[in-house]
Design brief:
heterotrimer, A mainly alpha, B alpha+beta, C mainly alpha, A: mainly alpha, two-stranded antiparallel ribbon, 63% helix, C: mainly alpha, 41% helix
C-alpha cells in the first residue's frame, strides 16, 4: 500500500473500499456462508455492541451521574422524554443479549475448536472481551441508582474486599469511599461510558483484525486440521469462493437486522427493571444481581466470599485463557483408547472429591452437572471401542477439554438458572410456579 | 441455503435476477426509511418535553419597594425595574452585545455593561459602545395581589406601556 | 400439494435467497420501528388531552376553556421541596371551577383549598408518583414507587404534615391526634411532630403505687382480663392475658403496693345506711347536686351512660373500691394520688357518708362472682413482675420497683412513610399503608401472637381517625423546614402564688383552660377577670348552681370557706385581666339614664335583641342566646361594650353576630344592659 503519487476522490474511495473489504477475508467458500457454521454469533455480538453504543450515547444526553438526580433522570426517561423509555429498555435488553451472545459465541468457538493456533491469542482477546462485557454490565447496573443497582453493587463490591491483603484497598479505590456513594456513582459512570467502551472498541478492532489476518472463518479440513478460508487451498483457489463482504457481510447484516427488530420488540413490550430510589438503610429481599451474576451469587451462598467471588471465577478465567495452550490432544485422539482403567479411576476420584467438597458446603445444585458429566464420561468410556457412528461413538471421541468445558457450561447454566428462578427472600429455595 | 440458479449471463438478466435486484432495492429502501425514522426519533428525543428552568414569569415584588425615579437591578431575575414619572416598566438587563449582565450607574445615571463598555439610557436606548440594539422592554403587569409581574420571555415595544402603581 | 410442499413453496417465495431475506428483514425493522411513534401517539396522556378537548367543546364557555387549555406535558417544579408533579398533564381542569359539575376523572376541578397548586404541588398531600405520566404509575403502588394515592378518607393526614394546630377543616385528623393522646398510644410509642416536639399523652393512667388500699386482687384480675367488662368506656386496652397471667400480675400489683399518705389518717365511721327509698333518693340527689356527673358517668336504668368522660365511670365502682379508701379519697384525693385530676372538695362528714354509701351501692354482683384465685405466693408474684416488665405496664402506670421503659414500642414518627417491603401484611389484606395501620390498630395480635400490643376498644371511625393522624407522620413531616410548620406555641402555665395553689388544689384546670393550658369542658378563664363583676364571682363561687341550670355537667360546689373564696375570686379578678378592658375603652360616667333609655329603644326596636335573648321571662321568647335579665350584675360595662362592638374579638367562635354598632349605639346599649340587675334566682323562676 504505497501512497500513490496522484489521486482523485473516486480512486481514493475505491482504495478505501478495497481496504474495508479486507475487514473480512476477501473471499470465502460458499459452503461457509450459511449460518450453521458460526450462527453469525460474532457479528450479532458486534451488532448488540453497536446498539449499546448508539443508545448509550443518547442516554448520556439526559443522564446526570449524581445523587439523587440519576434516579430522577430514569423517571424522566420513562415518563416525559420522547422515546426515552424505549432507548433505556433497548440499552438494558441489548446488554443482556450481548452478555448472552458473548457466552454463546465463546462456547461455539470452543466447540468448533477455533481457538487453535494461530488463533490462540485471539481467543485470549475474546476472553478479555467477555470480562469487559461483564464489567460493562456491572458498572452500568449502578447508574440508575435504584434499590436494585445500589444493592447489586454493594454485594458485588463486597466480594472484592474479600481478596486477601489488597481487597479493602481495591474496593476503596474503586468506590472512592467506604460505601457505594456519590463518588462510586461517578467512577462507575466514567468506567461505563469512557474507559470500558474505549477498551472494548480497541479489543474488538484487534479481534477483527486478527480474524482477518488468520484467514477469516475457521473450518476444519479433511485431515481434521484447521483450514482457514482465506488461505489458498491447493486446488483451484477461486473455485466455489465468493466475495465475503458482498455475501457474508450481507447475510450477517440480515441477522443483525432481525436481532435489532427482536430487541426493539422486547424493549417496546417489557420495561427495564427500575425499583425505588436507592436507600442505604433498607436492603430489599432478595437482593438479586442481574441474571448473569446470579450464578456467582449462588456460589456466594455456598462458599466463603473469597472462594466464590475470587478463587472460583479466577480459576475459570485462568482455565479459559490457557485452553488454547493446553490443547495437547490436537488429533482428537480417543480419550479412552489408552490407560482406560487408570483414567476412569482418576475420573472417579475427581468426581468423588468434587462431590465431597460440594456436599461439605451443602451446595446441592452444582452437584448435578458433576454427576451428569461424570456419568456421560463413563458412558463414553464404555463405548470407546465401538465402531458404529451413533451418539455413543460420538461421545467416545470427545477429548478432555470438551468434557471440562461442557461441565463448566453446565455449572454456569445450572447455577444461573437456580439463582434466577429458584431463589426467593433470604436466598431461600422457592418454586417459581408457586409465587 | 441452496442458492437458486444465478448464473450471470451478461446482457440479458434472468427474471430471477431482476427479482433479486428488486428485493435488494426494497430492503435497502426500507433500511434507508428506518434510518431516516431513527433520525426523526433522535431529533424528537433531543428536544425535551419538560424543562427544569425557572418560569419566565416572575414577581418583582410590591411597587412601593421602588423609590420614585429609580432604576433597580434585580440580579435574581436579570431585569431592571424602572420607576419613571410615567409609571413602571421592565428592561432586560442582558447586554445586547454579547450577553453580559449590565448594571445601573447612579452617578452618571446610565446603564453600563462591564464587559465591553456599552452604555444605555434608562429607557434602554444605546448611548455608546458596541451594543447593536437597545435593551428590550419586557412585558410587565400588576398581579391581583398587587405585586409587579414580569414576563422575561415577552418583549414589548419601548415607550409603549407603563404600569401605574 | 401436501401441506409440507406448500410450506416449502411459501418459504422459497419469502425467504428463498438472501436478497429476499434482506428485504423482509428490513421491512420488519421498519415495521417494528413504526410501533414506537404509534404507541407514543396513542399514549395515555395524549388520550386524556384529546378527551378533554372533546369535553370542553360541549360546554357553554368553550371558547374560554379552550383558550386556557394547554397541551403537552405539564409540570409543577418546586426544587426546594423536591416536587416534580405532572398530574396536571391529564388533570386538565384543576383550575376550572366552571367544570364543577363534571364528575368524570381526570377532568374534575380541584375543590377550593387554602393552598395554590403551584405552592406545594399535588403529591405532598395526595401522595402517588407525581413524576409519572401514566395512570398506573401515578396512582398505584409499583416496583418503582410504593406510595399510592392516599385514599380520600385519609387525606386530612396530609394537612398534619405541617399543621399542628387544631384546624376547622380537619375534624378527622384532630380526632385522631386527640385519640392518640387520650388512649395513651404515645405512652409506649414515641411520635415526634413536625416542630420536633413529642406528642404527649393526656389520659393520665392511675398510679398503682398504693393500689392494694383501693381494691382487691380479684378485682385487678377481672379488670385485667377484660377492662371493658367493668367499664365499657375504659380506655385501658385488653392485653389478652390468660387466667394464670392475669392472676400473677394481680398478685404482683398487690404485693408491690405501699401505704399512701392517706392511709395514715383515721377514717370516720360511717353510720349504717338508712335503707329507705327516701334515703336512697337523698344520696342520689346529693350526687346530682354536687355535679359529680360533670366528670364521672353512671349507667342509668335504660343502660345509657349519663355524665362526663373526664374521670372514670362509676357504674360498678362498688365492686371495685374499698369503703375506707373511698372515704379517705373523697376527703383528700391528692393524699392518695398527688397527680389526680379530682379536685379536693370540702365535703363535710355527712356528705361523705351519703356519697360513699351511694357509690358503694353501685355494684355489679356478677362482676366478681366467678373470680376465685388461689392464694398469692412468691412465685406468682415473681412471674407477675416479669409480665409487668415484659408488657410495659409501667409505661403508663406508676408501679413500685418497675421503671418506666423507654422506647418500649416502635417509634411512629415516620410511620406514614414506612417502606412497604418492611411491612408484614396479613394474608388477604390490601397491601397499602393505611390498611396496614388500621389493621394493626383493629387487631394487633392478628399480626403475630407473640406481639405485645394490646387490643383497644375503638369504633371504626376512631380507628380511621387514628390512622389519619399517623399517616401525617411522613418523612416529609419530620424534615419539614421550620418556616412551613404551623403551630401555636403553648407555653406551660401553672398558676402561682397562694391563690394559684388553691386553684391547683381545686383542679380548676381539669375543666377550664387558662393561658392555653387545661381542659376544654368549661369556659376559658384566661381573661375571666375582665368578664365578670367581683360580687357576682364571689356569689357564684359560693353557689355555682344558678348559672345555666339545665345542664348536667356544670361547675360543682366546693364548699369553700369565706377566706378561700376571697382568695380565689381575687386571684381571678386581678390575675386574669384582659388587655384594653379599662376606662380608656369606655368612660363609665357616660352610662347615664338618658343613654339607657336610648339603649332600650335600640334593644327592642332597631336591633330586636329580644328575638334571641330573654329579659322578661314572661314576655320574651328568644332562647338562642343567654338570658340577659341579670346581666348587669354579672358583666362589667367595659366587657359588654367591647362585646357589643365585636363579639368575635372577645370570644372567638361565638354564635353572636356582629351587630356593627356605632360607638354611641354601643355605649347606649351598654348603659341599658347595665340596668338589668334582676336577682338571678328570681329571674329564672
Amino acid at each position: 500500500m504505497n501512497a500513490p503519487a496522484s489521486s482523485n476522490p473516486i480512486q481514493a474511495l475505491a482504495r478505501w473500499r478495497d481496504e474495508f473489504q479486507e475487514i473480512f477475508a476477501a473471499r470465502v467458500r460458499e459452503s461457509q456462508l450459511g449460518y450453521r457454521l458460526t450462527w453469525y454469533l460474532g457479528a450479532l455480538t458486534l451488532g448488540t455492541f453497536t446498539i449499546q453504543l448508539i443508545t448509550g450515547i443518547l442516554l448520556m444526553l439526559y443522564y446526570h451521574p449524581s445523587i439523587p438526580q440519576a434516579y430522577a433522570d430514569m423517571k424522566d426517561l420513562q415518563f416525559v422524554i420522547s422515546s426515552g423509555v424505549l432507548l433505556r429498555n433497548l440499552h438494558r435488553w441489548s446488554a443482556h443479549a450481548m452478555v448472552f451472545l458473548v457466552f454463546v459465541h465463546m462456547a461455539k468457538v470452543f466447540y468448533r475448536r477455533a481457538y487453535r493456533p494461530p488463533r490462540e491469542l485471539n481467543w485470549v482477546v475474546g476472553v478479555c472481551l467477555l470480562l469487559l462485557t461483564l464489567l460493562l454490565s456491572y458498572t452500568g447496573y449502578l447508574l440508575p441508582w435504584d434499590q436494585l443497582s445500589y444493592w447489586g453493587t454493594t454485594v458485588g463490591s463486597n466480594i472484592m474486599s474479600s481478596i486477601p491483603f489488597i481487597g479493602d484497598k481495591l474496593r476503596f479505590t474503586l468506590l472512592g469511599g467506604n460505601t457505594v456513594n456519590a463518588n462510586a456513582l461517578l467512577r462507575f459512570y466514567v468506567l461505563h461510558t469512557m474507559i470500558l467502551p474505549l477498551t472494548v472498541i480497541l479489543l474488538i478492532s484487534i479481534h477483527l483484525w486478527r480474524l482477518h489476518e488468520d484467514g477469516g472463518m475457521y473450518t476444519v479440513g479433511p485431515d481434521g486440521g484447521p483450514v482457514p478460508s482465506g488461505s489458498g487451498a491447493p486446488s483451484s483457489p477461486q473455485a466455489g469462493r465468493t466475495l465475503s463482504y458482498r455475501e457474508l457481510l450481507f447475510r450477517e447484516i440480515i441477522g443483525i437486522e432481525v436481532l435489532a427488530a427482536g430487541l426493539i420488540l422486547i424493549a417496546l413490550r417489557w420495561n427495564a427493571p427500575l425499583e425505588q430510589l436507592a436507600d442505604p438503610l433498607h436492603t430489599p429481599n432478595p437482593a438479586k444481581a442481574p441474571w448473569y451474576f446470579t450464578g456467582l451469587q449462588e456460589l456466594l451462598h455456598y462458599f466463603p466470599p473469597f472462594v466464590a467471588g475470587i478463587i472460583l471465577p479466577g480459576l475459570i478465567v485462568l482455565a479459559l485463557v490457557v485452553i488454547p495452550f493446553f490443547h495437547v490432544n490436537v488429533k482428537e485422539e480417543n480419550l479412552w483408547v489408552r490407560n482406560k482403567s487408570s483414567r476412569l479411576l482418576t475420573l472417579g476420584i475427581v468426581v468423588v472429591v468434587l462431590s465431597v467438597l460440594l456436599i461439605r458446603f451443602h451446595a446441592w445444585d452444582p452437584l448435578l452437572p458433576v454427576w451428569i458429566v461424570g456419568g456421560f464420561m463413563v458412558l463414553a468410556a464404555q463405548s470407546s471401542n465401538r465402531q458404529d457412528k451413533g451418539f455413543r461413538a460420538w461421545l467416545a471421541s470427545k477429548p478432555l477439554p470438551f468434557w471440562i468445558m461442557t461441565w463448566f457450561l453446565m455449572e454456569a447454566v445450572t447455577l444461573t438458572s437456580v439463582g434466577t428462578f429458584f431463589r426467593g427472600p433470604g436466598w431461600s429455595w422457592v418454586w417459581p410456579w408457586r409465587t | 441455503m441452496p442458492e437458486e440458479d444465478k448464473k450471470e449471463s451478461p446482457g440479458s438478466k434472468s427474471p430471477e435476477l431482476n427479482r433479486r435486484e428488486f428485493f435488494i432495492k426494497l430492503g435497502a429502501t426500507s433500511l434507508a426509511v428506518a434510518g431516516a425514522g431513527v433520525c426523526v426519533f433522535g431529533v424528537r428525543y433531543l428536544s425535551p418535553n419538560v424543562l427544569y428552568e425557572p418560569s419566565p414569569v416572575v414577581s418583582a415584588g410590591k411597587p412601593e419597594h421602588y423609590a420614585a425615579n429609580s432604576v433597580t437591578l434585580d440580579p435574581r431575575l436579570g431585569v431592571f425595574i424602572v420607576r419613571s414619572a410615567e409609571g413602571f416598566y421592565a428592561l432586560n438587563a442582558v447586554c445586547t452585545h454579547l450577553g453580559c449582565l449590565t448594571v445601573w450607574k447612579p452617578d452618571p445615571g446610565v446603564i453600563a455593561c462591564p464587559c465591553h463598555g456599552s452604555t444605555f439610557q434608562r429607557d434602554g436606548s444605546v448611548i455608546a459602545g458596541p451594543a447593536p440594539r437597545p435593551l428590550p422592554w419586557l412585558k410587565m403587569w400588576m398581579a391581583d395581589d398587587g405585586s409587579l409581574m414580569v414576563d422575561r420571555a415577552t418583549i414589548v415595544p419601548p415607550q409603549n406601556e407603563y404600569v401605574r402603581a | 400439494m401436501s401441506l409440507r410442499d406448500q410450506f416449502g413453496r411459501l418459504r422459497r417465495i419469502f425467504l428463498g435467497d438472501p436478497a429476499r431475506r434482506f428485504a423482509w428483514a428490513s421491512l420488519l425493522l421498519v415495521g417494528v420501528l413504526l410501533i414506537a411513534p404509534t404507541q407514543d401517539f396513542f399514549n395515555q396522556w395524549r388520550h386524556y388531552q384529546r378527551e378533554y378537548r372533546k369535553l370542553i367543546r360541549t360546554r357553554p364557555d368553550a371558547a374560554t376553556l379552550e383558550r386556557r387549555t394547554v397541551s403537552g406535558i405539564q409540570q409543577i417544579w418546586i426544587p426546594e421541596r423536591g416536587v416534580v408533579d405532572r398530574c396536571a398533564t391529564c388533570h386538565l381542569a384543576l383550575n376550572e371551577p366552571s367544570l364543577a359539575d363534571v364528575r368524570k376523572q381526570p377532568f374534575r376541578p380541584h375543590p377550593p383549598m387554602p393552598h395554590s397548586l403551584t405552592e406545594f404541588g399535588c403529591v405532598m398531600c395526595h401522595h402517588g408518583q407525581g413524576a409519572a405520566t401514566t395512570v398506573e404509575e401515578a396512582h398505584y403502588s409499583t416496583k418503582a414507587w410504593e406510595q399510592p394515592i392516599l385514599p380520600a378518607r385519609y387525606l386530612e393526614g396530609s394537612c398534619g404534615q405541617c399543621h399542628m394546630d387544631v384546624l376547622e377543616g380537619t375534624p378527622q385528623l384532630n380526632l385522631g391526634r386527640q385519640l392518640l393522646a387520650r388512649y395513651g398510644c404515645v405512652h409506649c410509642h414515641s411520635v415526634t411532630q413536625p416542630d420536633g416536639t413529642r406528642m404527649t399523652p393526656v389520659d393520665e393512667p392511675p398510679s398503682l403505687l398504693h393500689v392494694a388500699e383501693k381494691t382487691t386482687r380479684e378485682w385487678i384480675f377481672a379488670w385485667i382480663k377484660n377492662p371493658q367488662a367493668y367499664s365499657a368506656t375504659s380506655t385501658m386496652p385488653n392485653f389478652r392475658f390468660n387466667d394464670q397471667q392475669a392472676a400473677d400480675i394481680a398478685s404482683f400489683l398487690i404485693a408491690q403496693s405501699t401505704p399512701s399518705e392517706n392511709a395514715q389518717h383515721g377514717v370516720a365511721k360511717i353510720p349504717a345506711p338508712a335503707e329507705s327509698a327516701d334515703a336512697a333518693q337523698a344520696r342520689a340527689s346529693l350526687y346530682g347536686t354536687l355535679f359529680c356527673a360533670s366528670c364521672h358517668a353512671i349507667q342509668n336504668q335504660a343502660g345509657n351512660l349519663v355524665g362526663g368522660d373526664l374521670a372514670p365511670e362509676l357504674t360498678k365502682v362498688g365492686s371495685k373500691v374499698n369503703s375506707e379508701w373511698l372515704i379517705r379519697w373523697l376527703n383528700q384525693p391528692q393524699g392518695y394520688d398527688p397527680k389526680t385530676r379530682m379536685p379536693r372538695y370540702r365535703f363535710d362528714d355527712k356528705q361523705i357518708a351519703l356519697l360513699s354509701t351511694f357509690l358503694l351501692s353501685k355494684k355489679d354482683p356478677d362482676f366478681l362472682a366467678n373470680v376465685h384465685l388461689p392464694p398469692s405466693d412468691a412465685e406468682s408474684i415473681a412471674r407477675g413482675k416479669t409480665l409487668v416488665a415484659e408488657y410495659g405496664c409501667a409505661a403508663c402506670h406508676q408501679i413500685n420497683g418497675v421503671n418506666p421503659p423507654e422506647n418500649f414500642a416502635p417509634d411512629l414518627s415516620r410511620i406514614g412513610s414506612k417502606p412497604l417491603f418492611q411491612v408484614g401484611f396479613l394474608r388477604g389484606m390490601p397491601e397499602t399503608l393505611p390498611d396496614y395501620i388500621s389493621g394493626k390498630i383493629h387487631d394487633p395480635r392478628a399480626f403475630g401472637p407473640a406481639l405485645k400490643m394490646p387490643q383497644f376498644t375503638l369504633a371504626e371511625p376512631q380507628i380511621e381517625a387514628i390512622t389519619t393522624a399517623l399517616l401525617a407522620q411522613t418523612d416529609r413531616a419530620v424534615t419539614m423546614p421550620p418556616e412551613l410548620v404551623r403551630v401555636t406555641p403553648h407555653p406551660k402555665y401553672h398558676p402561682g402564688g397562694e391563690g394559684g395553689l388553691l386553684l391547683e388544689e381545686l383542679r380548676c384546670m381539669s375543666c377550664h383552660t387558662i393561658n392555653g393550658n387545661g381542659g376544654d369542658m368549661a369556659p376559658d378563664l384566661t381573661w375571666e377577670g375582665s368578664a365578670v363583676q367581683r360580687d357576682w364571682l364571689y356569689a357564684f363561687m359560693k353557689n355555682p348552681n344558678t348559672l345555666r341550670p339545665a345542664l348536667i355537667r356544670r361547675m360543682p360546689k366546693f364548699n369553700l370557706t369565706e377566706a378561700e373564696n376571697k382568695t380565689v375570686s381575687d386571684y381571678i379578678l386581678n390575675g386574669y385581666q384582659a388587655p384594653g378592658f379599662n376606662s380608656r375603652a369606655l368612660d363609665v360616667r357616660t352610662l347615664n339614664a338618658e343613654a339607657a333609655v336610648r339603649g332600650k329603644a335600640l334593644y327592642y326596636t332597631k336591633y330586636a335583641c329580644q328575638s334571641c335573648h330573654i329579659i322578661d321571662f314572661k314576655k320574651d321568647k328568644g332562647y338562642i342566646g343567654p338570658p340577659l335579665a341579670a346581666v348587669g350584675n354579672r358583666r362589667p360595662a367595659v366587657w359588654i361594650y367591647k362585646w357589643l362592638k365585636n363579639p368575635q374579638a372577645v370570644v372567638p367562635g361565638t354564635t353572636m353576630p356582629n351587630p356593627n354598632l356605632s360607638d354611641d349605639e354601643a355605649r347606649d346599649l351598654t348603659a341599658f344592659l347595665m340596668t338589668l340587675k334582676a336577682r338571678e334566682n328570681e329571674a329564672a323562676k
